[in-house]
Amino acid sequence: MRNRLLPGAATALALFAGVRLAGIAAIVLANHLSGRPALRSLAHSWDSRWYLHIAEFGYGTRAHVLASTGAVQRDWAFFPLYPGLIRALSTVLPLSPGAAALLIAWSAAGVAAYGIYAIGRLLYGRAVATALVGLWACLPHSVVLGIAYTEPLLTALAAWSLYAVLRDRWLWAGVLAALAGLSRPTGFAVAGAVCAAAGWEIAGRRGRVPSGLWWGAVIAPLGWVGFVLWVGDRTGDLLGGYFTVQRAWDSRFDFGAGSLHFLKSLLLHGGRIVYPLALVVVATAVVLFCLLCADRAPLPLVVYAGILLLITICGSGPYASKPRFLVPAFPLLLPLALACGRSWRVRPRNVLLPGGALALTSVAYGTYLMTGGHTPL
């Protein structure tokens, strides 16, 4: 087992850390200047409060009734891996649940960046891998990688599961996919990618198929399916209970009806900057997915990114949150990373100047979302 980083990874990780630490510092400074607690918003914003409550008190201990509809929002909508890790870490170390949540999120973000680099380097070399990590750090909503949310954890598990698939390490791929399925509702995208790649591999093989391949495909969906069935059992509706819980949060697969309604409302009435930018991010993701397919990227990367994109477009819920759902979809950035890699070999300045501007924009916009956006992330 290797005890050192992959060649070139230190540069990519330093780039990632620099951008995201700048983002955290900007939020802390903005909070200080406005008289708010400097770090509290990082660990106690929106969904973070639900994860912390589950970590401290367990499931079935918190509900919120919407005055507008009477719907009862329950903590069963939140998947268990992150609050479980928070509880474990705050039990063994002298940390508050909020501090433990941030430590886990920040560590997972670093592990995810390394996994993204490993995939990029395996497929296209150091330059593209470094660009891929840098682009992921500079996404408009990459501020979510520095707060107590589950996107860093999902991305870390997804990246290394997909890397394991690309290296034919099927058992590892299945186990990591199962854990990803316990991290977020969209975690089943990892299992979908593993199973699709396994099915393609089985269909293409002539002769005996390794047992590890079969086991990886079987294990991959167990985390997501297990939690969905557990919630169903708790609600008294084994197969439908989880989806009933999610509907109370206005989270369901509506085949894009909600997105079309949002687009109509935005065109007729306008809205704060977060709404048109969210539309631009989602539209750009569609274009990048088409380019990813045109570049003939490996099947597991295409399936994983495609499932996340499909859920984002065809799922209901607040449109302002949709760019956050796409943060784990790092394979969408591969076409841009390939272009950056080609430009770097010809003229590095053509990459450094736009990259610096992109990083500053990401830091500024993330600070706005956390301190002045007044829209749940």
UniProtKB/TrEMBL annotation:
<dbReference type="GO" id="GO:0006506">
    <property type="term" value="P:GPI anchor biosynthetic process"/>
</dbReference>
<feature type="transmembrane region" description="Helical">
    <location>
        <begin position="325"/>
        <end position="344"/>
    </location>
</feature>
<comment type="pathway">
    <text>Glycolipid biosynthesis; glycosylphosphatidylinositol-anchor biosynthesis.</text>
</comment>
<keyword id="KW-0337">GPI-anchor biosynthesis</keyword>
<feature type="transmembrane region" description="Helical">
    <location>
        <begin position="99"/>
        <end position="120"/>
    </location>
</feature>
<keyword id="KW-0256">Endoplasmic reticulum</keyword>
<keyword id="KW-1133">Transmembrane helix</keyword>
<dbReference type="GO" id="GO:0016020">
    <property type="term" value="C:membrane"/>
</dbReference>
<dbReference type="GO" id="GO:0004376">
    <property type="term" value="F:GPI mannosyltransferase activity"/>
</dbReference>
<keyword id="KW-0472">Membrane</keyword>
<feature type="transmembrane region" description="Helical">
    <location>
        <begin position="170"/>
        <end position="200"/>
    </location>
</feature>
<feature type="transmembrane region" description="Helical">
    <location>
        <begin position="301"/>
        <end position="319"/>
    </location>
</feature>
<keyword id="KW-0812">Transmembrane</keyword>
<keyword id="KW-0328">Glycosyltransferase</keyword>
<feature type="transmembrane region" description="Helical">
    <location>
        <begin position="351"/>
        <end position="371"/>
    </location>
</feature>
<keyword id="KW-0808">Transferase</keyword>
<feature type="transmembrane region" description="Helical">
    <location>
        <begin position="212"/>
        <end position="232"/>
    </location>
</feature>
<dbReference type="GO" id="GO:0000009">
    <property type="term" value="F:alpha-1,6-mannosyltransferase activity"/>
</dbReference>
<feature type="transmembrane region" description="Helical">
    <location>
        <begin position="273"/>
        <end position="294"/>
    </location>
</feature>
<feature type="transmembrane region" description="Helical">
    <location>
        <begin position="127"/>
        <end position="150"/>
    </location>
</feature>
<protein>
    <submittedName>
        <fullName>Membrane protein</fullName>
    </submittedName>
</protein>
<dbReference type="InterPro" id="IPR007315">
    <property type="entry name" value="PIG-V/Gpi18"/>
</dbReference>
